């Protein structure tokens, strides 16, 4: 029976390696310790409680209708709600790799946003049917600060088609990759202390699943990759 231990270890190692190979590649960073994982495959009490849930921990629902369906968590903007469908996850961090799957189910756009504890916007990714954009957000609303676009990538997607979004934050840099397209940018505000990640659905519906967050470690190859992206 002694052979079972090395055999099981070999199988486990192969499984882990296979799981790592399946992850979309990162550019700015390397994934470190897994900080959170949520598949939305079963109801989350704090989201089911809706606005009645006041504790600023874990997931919270701020607006719209959010339903747990077999595919994941579906957010829908309510026509009489006055604002987009909006959920947040409270997690203090400075640098991280954040990954999630999204499916546009008729919405105008999906916004992934990071905020500080005030709360004020730090940065965001906006996905519509024809492409996606990333930016340093307007941090004071009333001025003089304004949003700073990092770029927009043309990347058409069909309704009901799943895509994986990878957002990397390290120091004052932000890199967003969907499929084979990447938008990168740099701004001092990106290095700020962060308090929440947020999902926003504007118009109709979108579905989310497989949300992951890792510690971010510097990627030694990033300088070369950054120059290659700039030359395109």
Distance between the termini: 57 Å
Number of domains: 1
Amount of helix: 10-25%
Low-confidence stretches: 1-20
Overall strand count: 15
**What top-tier CATH class fits best?**
Mainly Beta
CATH architectural designation: Sandwich
Secondary-structure element series: HEHEEEEEEEEEEEEEEH
Assess the beta-strand content as a share of residues. Answer: over 45%
Can you summarize the main beta sheet? 8 strands, antiparallel
Q: What is the name of the CATH topology?
A: Jelly Rolls
| Large-scale geometry | globular
Structural class category: mainly beta
**Radius of gyration of CA atoms, rounded to a whole number:** 19 Å
Q: Residue-averaged pLDDT, rounded?
A: 90
Report the CATH superfamily. Answer: Exo-inulinase, domain 1
């Amino acid at each position: 029976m002694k052979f079972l231990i090395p055999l099981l270890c070999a199988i486990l190692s192969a499984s882990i390696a296979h799981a790592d190979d399946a992850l979309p590649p990162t550019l700015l960073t390397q994934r470190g310790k897994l900080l959170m994982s949520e598949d939305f495959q079963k109801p989350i009490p704090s989201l089911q409680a809706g606005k009645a849930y006041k504790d600023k921990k874990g997931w919270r629902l701020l607006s719209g209708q959010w339903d747990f369906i077999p595919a994941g968590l579906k957010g829908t903007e309510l026509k009489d709600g006055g604002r987009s469908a909006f959920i947040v996850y409270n997690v203090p961090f400075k640098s991280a790799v954040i990954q999630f799957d999204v499916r546009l189910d008729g919405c105008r756009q999906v916004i992934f946003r990071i905020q500080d504890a005030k709360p004020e916007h730090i940065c965001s990714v906006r996905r519509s049917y024809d492409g996606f954009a990333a930016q340093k957000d307007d941090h004071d609303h009333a001025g003089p600060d304004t949003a700073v676009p990092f770029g927009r990538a043309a990347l058409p997607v069909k309704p009901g088609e799943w895509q994986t979004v990878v957002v990397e934050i390290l120091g004052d840099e932000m890199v967003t990759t969907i499929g084979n397209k990447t938008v990168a940018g740099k701004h001092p505000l990106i290095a700020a202390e962060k308090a929440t990640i947020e999902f926003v659905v504007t118009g109709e519906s979108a579905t989310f699943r497989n949300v992951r967050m890792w510690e971010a470690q510097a990627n030694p190859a990033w300088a070369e990759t950054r120059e290659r992206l700039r030359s395109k």
